[in-house]
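Limitations
The structure tokens in this dataset are predictions for the assembled complex, not deposited experimental models. Users should treat interface geometry with appropriate caution, especially where small molecules or nucleic acid strands are included. An illustrative entry is reproduced here so readers can see what is and is not provided.
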Amino acid sequence: MTIYAALGAVEQGLVYGIMVIGVYLTFRILDFPDLTVDGSLPLGAAISAVAITHGINPYLTLLFALGGGFCAGMITAILNTKFKILHLLASILTMIALYSINIRIMAGPNVALLGTPTVFDAVSELGIPMHLSGLLVFGCFALLVTGLMIWFLGTELGQAILATGDNPQMITSLGVNTHTIIIFGVGLSNGLVALSGALVAQNQGAADVGMGIGTIVAGLASVIIGETVCGATSIARAFIAALAGSILYRLAIAFALGVEWGGFSFNPSDLNLITALLVIVALTTPNLKRRLLQR
Amino acid sequence: MISLDHCHKYFHRGSVNEIHPLNDICLQIREGDFITVIGSNGAGKSTLLNCIAGSFFPDSGRIRINSCEVTAWPEYKRARFIARVFQDPLLGTCPSATIEQNLALALKRGRRRGLGRGVKNRDRALFRDKLRHLGLGLEDRLLDKVGLLSGGQRQALTMLMATMIRPEVLLLDEHIAALDPKTANQILTLTRDIIQEQGLTTMMITHNMNHAIEFGNRLIMLHQGRVIYDVAGPEKLSLSVDDLLHRFYSAQGEEFSLDSMLLT
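Predicted assembly:
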């Protein structure tokens, strides 16, 4: 693996790390497996790309993306809490609906961002080379989001979110409306995922309706890798682990794509298979280990 | 004061499994009442407490707390008046949060939760002080996760959390039934101390006739969703277990004779 490939992987790890933090919030904290992310990542990309082509400030478009993702997450959570649809099914419904919505937003399956302003311009103007500017911008965003989330979950409201995932009966009897918390939490999660998608689109120079496929699996793989490597004994540690897991995941993928065994090598299209296998192994090994140790 | 006015609740209404766990319940709970609730399985004891707490709405009837009509209020909204302790010690606390985080959550019962720190430095002294009263050594373990505590310790913590903010009524649903006898006695003593200290209005479900007589100033017996016996004051003081058992069996005897009449 060349240094450029490694730097590229770290860059990807940082920007998708924002998505992974969103996935961590739903999957681990709220105990709400949320597949909406496969739709809200391209939603964020689409909103940001279309807004930029309409001459809106690229930083402002990130806020639009955040808001769009938040709404998508809210819809999933409302379907689940108010209409009693199973969380997985509710999120699949929103995800499928978003496919059509994303194409409507972009008025086609993709939007190119060629020669338009992006959030990287300010950094490039400082004379920082192109391959480092992405790293810098994504690093700043990822650290900012991680820091904010750690702060937020330490607040009264954040603690109520943690308790909602942990013991809904208890927090209800302490006067918290768990429906509101779930709607807000899943919204926030998808807002972050959409923000991640918007940044990816600005970096790639295009938003594409298919760019969200496999987001949830990549997110889960990153969460699990992070937990295995860094542990999750506290909330701060868990979020840092999620970000680190994202970077490790992208490095592992970059490494796998570079491997060659006598004429055989992986295609980028094998990624989803590799990721799925990775998640299966990570989810089953703790169980297997326990069973083997009991003998 | 809490009043239930002709409350009815059916489960599986209209099906062959229909049950009627609250059958025209009228109950006035006075300020400072400590009511023990007894009755056989399925008599409607838990349903009564859940109905007051708002876990579901009654099919008909009205519930008022302090002249505030709460019949249509969901459970989380009634939490500003009501604190609960459940039979299952796991239901009252958050396992992955620390002791101080759990106490801080309880300190905000029924109040707005904003962006202030979840656990505030100024509250830690209060937490330590309250925990010291339990005599379980938890005051030095503020940062331990609650999942590490035993069932008894968790139930003691739940009692503390329920009464952190003085509730208008404290609902105890067989809260010592899942504990070993020694721990159960400790929790019961703690319960009595807290209730006396704060002069709390309380309803306590129990299957132990001795506890039902020994604790509280009032006793109600439920049978098939009805209050069949409501006794307070000196009359309650003079009750014996035999009296209660006699009432119990006579209530079921009626049912038996009804059944036998149907068969003949």
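Some entries come with short summary sentences. For this one: Residues 255 and 261 of chain B are 10 Å apart (CA to CA).
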